[in-house]
Design brief:
It is a single chain. With 212 residues, the chain is of the alpha/beta class. It has a single domain, classed as Rossmann fold (3-Layer(aba) Sandwich), CATH 3.40.50. Helices cover 33% and strands 25% of the residues. It contains seven helices and eight strands. It has a five-stranded parallel sheet with strand order 5-6-7-3-8, with helices on both faces. Strand 6, helix 6 and strand 7 form a beta-alpha-beta unit. The chain is globular, with a radius of gyration of 17 Å.
Length: 212
């Protein structure tokens, strides 16, 4: 069953179309890896799926009763994010901005969900630590926890292991695989790691064959 379908989808910036009249369907429960050279449109496509970038034409159809607030998105980390002066708990709770009418006073249900996401990403012991003082791998797992607060059914990941050492990268892959296999999460991940895509994905989409 489809979870999301792209119908004649065109995405781009200003007057440049990066993805043109693209038809594609993402199935519920799959682990889709998107590979391809730099600049071929992988991130643009993911931003479209996340609702960050509006289609120029065509549409992205949410299927099987999927709602926008059930989609989590982990973009590529920026320099500003790496040095953000807040605790790990504050970073993760910030995912609920707009859901709590009494910000920054988050209710028990939201705090419980944040704690669950910290546990899923194996960062619960870092709850009170300063985010800016963490290692690269720890920061990425905390940001994954933040994305998971919204990801009830679909998780979008844009190169989640970029800049990480091999051990941290493997930790991330293990967590993502566990989310897919044991938490019934549909995963869509942009990656340059072809070996990891082959080892973990249920399907691989090569953008080099789409955008010439």
């Amino acid at each position: 069953m489809f979870l999301l379908k792209c119908n004649k989808l065109t995405l781009g910036y200003n007057n440049k179309d990066i993805l043109h009249s693209f038809d594609y369907g993402i199935h519920s429960g799959e682990y889709l890896c998107i590979i391809g050279r730099n600049g071929c449109g992988k991130t643009t496509f993911l931003r479209g799926l996340a609702g960050v970038l509006r289609p120029k034409s065509g549409k992205i159809e949410l299927c099987d009763n999927l709602r926008r607030n059930q989609i989590g998105y982990l973009p590529q980390i920026t320099i500003a994010q790496k040095d953000f002066p807040a605790s790990v708990e504050e970073i993760v709770l910030s995912a609920f901005q707009g859901k709590s009418l009494l910000l920054p006073f988050y209710g028990k249900a939201l705090r419980k969900r944040a704690n669950e996401c910290l546990e899923l990403t194996r960062t619960e012991n870092l709850r009170k630590e300063s985010f800016r003082e963490l290692s690269g791998g720890q920061k990425q797992r905390v940001l994954l926890a933040r994305a998971l607060c919204a990801a009830e059914r679909l998780l979008l990941l844009d190169e989640p292991v970029t800049g990480l050492d091999p051990e941290s990268s493997q930790n991330m892959y293990n967590i993502i695989k566990d989310l897919h296999e044991n938490k019934n999460m549909t995963i869509v991940m942009v990656t340059h790691d072809i070996e990891a895509a082959r080892n973990n994905a249920t399907r691989v989409l090569n953008f080099n064959e789409i955008v010439q």
